Amino acid sequence: MTSQDGTPACRCSDPAVFGHIDGCELIPPVPDCSCNHRPYPETEWHADRDGLERSLNFWPGFLCTLETTDPGYHGRHGMQLTWALRGPAGAATFIIWTDWVPGAKSSPQIAEIFPMATDVGWHSPRWRKGWFLHRCPFLRPCWYNGSPDAAVATLESFKTDGEAAVWNALRTAYNERLVAEG
User: Fold this and answer.
1) Could you give the CA distance from residue 158 to residue 181 in angstroms, rounded to a whole number?
2) What mean pLDDT is predicted for residues 90-117?
3) Nearest by Cα to 18 from 168, 131, 156, 123
4) For residues 4 and 79, what is the distance between their CA atoms, to the nearest angstrom?
């Protein structure tokens, strides 16, 4: 796809798309490596109540030994589970990191800290004092803030009450941090 002036074009100008997606001619070729990892695969959204959308993402882990200046594409990272609730005011997310790395055994030294709740995040399409501009797979532009403490509490509720606890926590975060403070 090309723009009217003949330069390469892509869906990156679409605010619903994060960065370049697989198949975009603007993605630089991946150097020879074994992982062929791309961060943040496209997100599939499903209708939720009150006009919101929800998504549950399982982003695969990767293990790549390629030396690169772009650590977002190479290195070692376990599978990431991300719940997201999105609406007109922005998105609320809950993230769990695992030590599930393809082709690698879990290290006994760190196994006790996984799965690790890392964040309940708030993503706003407009500037907010104290929030920072974030490269986001859920909306563009994205001003972001979050709470690791809320993530730990959400993980404990998830263990006790299941997936409904996560969606309830995200709905509360969305309403309190994005709608009420909007």
Assistant:
1) 26
2) 90
3) 123
4) 40
